[in-house]
Amino acid sequence: MASFSLVRQKWHMRNLAKNLKKRAKELGLSDAEIARRTGLPTRRYGHYATGYREPNLDTLMAICEVLDVSPNQLLGWNKEDIPSHSGTGAAQSKLTSLATAMSAEQIDMLLEIGLIISKKQKKT
Predict the structure, then answer these.
(1) DSSP letters along 45-88, please?
(2) 88 part of a folded domain
């Protein structure tokens, strides 16, 4: 059974992948070059850049050093982006409960909806 934490993890991985690609493009660096500079196998870094896997903290810090960004920037977290959890406990519990009964495909659909809503809110 899938859970809300799985949805969050997938969102973080996709967000990280998007920001890795964006920053690499800004610096004119290939995945292979970033992997070389961080001491990672190219394939392993490629998994991070595609959102297939997420790095551990030490690896994230090494990548941040090469890309000259903070972990918050790579993860897409700004002060205004970090939600306040006050008053959202009941809603989170309900989402978690609903997510546990969903298939992986349904969780992916829910994640896409959440990303669309998030992007729309940022525009307003």
Answers:
(1) HHHHHHTSS---HHHHHHHHHHHT--HHHHHT--GGGS---TT-
(2) no
Nearest to residue 67, comparing CAs of 24, 8, 108?
24
Residue 85 is assigned to a structural domain of this protein: no
Give Cα 3 distance to the centre of its chain.
16
H or E, element range at 91: helix 89-100
Radius of gyration of the chain (CA): 16
For 31, the domain range is 4-78+99-123
**Would 103 be classed as within a structural domain?**
yes
How far is CA 77 from each of CA 17, 72, 73, 74, 115, rounded to the nearest angstrom?
14, 5, 6, 8, 14
In a domain, 24, yes or no: yes
Say which CATH number the domain at 57 has: 1.10.260.40
pLDDT tens digit sequence for 23-48: 999 999 999 999 999 999 999 999 99
Domain count within the chain: 1
**pLDDT of 4:** 57
**pLDDT of the residue at 11:** 65
